[in-house]
Design goal:
The protein is 66% helix and 9% strand. The termini are far apart. The protein is rod-shaped and about 135 Å long. A hairpin with a 5-residue loop joins β1 and β2. It is built from 13 helices and seven strands. α2 packs antiparallel against α3, α6 runs parallel beside α9 and α12 runs antiparallel to α13.
Length: 472
């Protein structure tokens, strides 16, 4: 009895036209739905709003279905490539950022789906051919349709399983997912996908020669093709892992350098505090002589000379103690340092900050907060007449609050994974870790940070829970 070639190499008896019709309609809908759904789930973690990934997946599904319904036929590579390209454009329009990262996701999905389809087809064909050759099927021809439907369902399930597994693993590797990648990184990450797909096409080209040589036996070639697909997927994953480790190593190095710089800053603060205390000791040592001099001036009724001497003494004492008195010499030095830096840039600096004595909060932890917050404020405040930086602290029940405000007219970008702002500066510039360090200190005292943007103003609020309600 004559037979008809099916979608994936299956053969059905011609009297089963109804089954062929049902499956020929159901098959492309389900197959493209699976691809669109996998593309949606693959790209969802990399966008701010899941609607962008959903639109991309829906566009992919509808476009591939459209190509199937067209009377003309495209080569498989061309059809898949156009589908992924259309999904990438929809993805980029819905979420207008990180275009290189989106290109990498589209290219990787193209290769993952291609290899998933190929592996599913190889298993599908070999298992189906084996089952159709059994004595049971030879004696029960009425079961052909059920076997065909079961094989189709198994093929779709395998395609979904392979695509979902590869996509999930690559999604798990990348962190943070909101970080963009450069053009060179895109090229490096995409090489395994490109080379894998090209290599598989070459293998398919030589398949006919293998069939001729072996008289139609493709089992050895199918096993080699299946292994090649697995190795290609593994290569894409390994390159992604190596890239992520490289990025993590760079970030760890930057964090270590930043920490070393902060330790050096704290050591400098300590030296300044020691110098301040040395000046205070020297002033204290000379205080008896100053008092004696004043007493002699007043005894001789040299009132004007005594007042002048007292004024100079008062000015010297104020200069020794510093212009900022926050209740702790460490925080005094940090505030004074950044006040001077702000004034060099003609930015007014206002402070009503005080250090909470007796609250169980370490002064050096507070200095880390002040140093990072004021550095960000000074560096991101535009030099204008209305520019300013202000810092204050206050108690709210048993919570100690630090609030830093500065003039700011830019826009904020959030990282959904960390809940912090994304830095607009490159990683190699050693920026972007300030807020993370501030949050780490705040969480040490069971607190956290809050960032907000108002009318031309950026505000950072840091909360730390005091261990004592009686602190000042």
């Amino acid at each position: 009895m004559p037979r008809v070639f099916g979608t994936m190499g299956l053969f059905l008896d011609i009297p089963k036209e109804r089954a062929i019709l049902i499956i020929s309609v159901f098959w492309p809908v389900m197959e493209n739905f699976i691809r669109g759904y996998c593309f949606y789930r693959f790209t969802k973690p990399f966008v701010r709003r899941k609607e962008a990934a959903f639109r991309a997946g829906a566009v992919y599904f509808l476009f591939m279905l459209f190509l199937f319904l067209m009377p003309w036929r495209l080569r498989t590579y061309t059809a898949y490539g156009l589908g992924v390209l259309t999904a990438y454009l929809a993805f980029s329009i819905a979420d207008r950022r990180n275009y290189c990262q989106k290109a990498y996701l589209a290219i990787t999905f193209f290769s993952l789906n291609w290899f998933a389809v190929s592996m599913a087809e190889i298993l599908y064909d070999n298992v189906y051919n084996y089952l159709t050759g059994t004595e049971y099927m030879a004696g029960h021809p009425e079961m052909d349709v059920f076997l065909y439907m079961g094989a189709c369902a198994a093929y779709l399930a395998l395609q979904f399983l392979f695509t979902a597994a590869g996509s999930w693993y690559i999604t798990k590797i990348f962190h943070p997912k909101g970080a963009d990648i450069g053009k060179r990184e895109l090229f490096m990450l995409s090489i395994p996908s490109f080379m894998g797909v090209i290599g598989y096409e070459i293998m398919r080209y030589y398949r006919m020669f293998y069939i001729i040589e072996t008289g139609g036996n493709t089992k050895g070639y199918d096993a080699l093709s299946f292994l090649y697909c697995m190795v290609s997927v593994a290569a894409a994953i390994v390159v992604a892992i190596l890239y992520q480790k490289m990025k993590s190593s760079q970030e760890e190095q930057l964090r270590a350098e930043l920490l070393a710089a902060q330790i050096g800053g704290i050591q400098n603060h300590i030296f300044q505090v020691e110098a301040l205390y040395q000046d205070i000791r020297s002033m204290k040592h000379d205080m008896a002589n100053h008092i004696l001099t004043l007493e002699r001036l007043y005894a001789r009724e040299q009132i004007e000379e005594a007042r002048a001497y007292a004024s100079s003494l008062k000015a010297g004492l104020a200069e020794t103690a510093g212009k900022i008195t926050s209740g702790n010499p460490v925080t005094d030095v940090v505030l004074q340092e950044w006040k001077q830096e702000a004034e060099k840039r003609n930015i007014p600096f206002h402070t009503t900050f005080y250090f909470p004595e007796g609250c169980g909060i370490n002064a050096f932890d507070v200095s880390v907060i002040l140093h990072n917050a004021l550095q960000n404020a000074v560096e991101n405040t535009i030099r204008r007449k209305e520019a300013y930086i202000s810092i204050r602290s206050y108690r709210k029940s048993n919570a100690y609050m630090i609030e830093i405000r500065n003039y700011f007219t830019g826009s904020l970008q959030w990282d959904p994974e960390s809940g912090l702002l994304r830095t607009s500066k490159k990683a190699q510039d050693r920026h972007g870790y300030g807020l993370a360090n501030i949050r780490k200190v705040a969480q040490k005292y069971s607190g956290d940070i809050e960032v907000s943007q108002g009318d031309k103003e950026f505000c950072l609020c840091v909360m730390m829970i005091a261990s004592s309600r009686t602190c000042l």
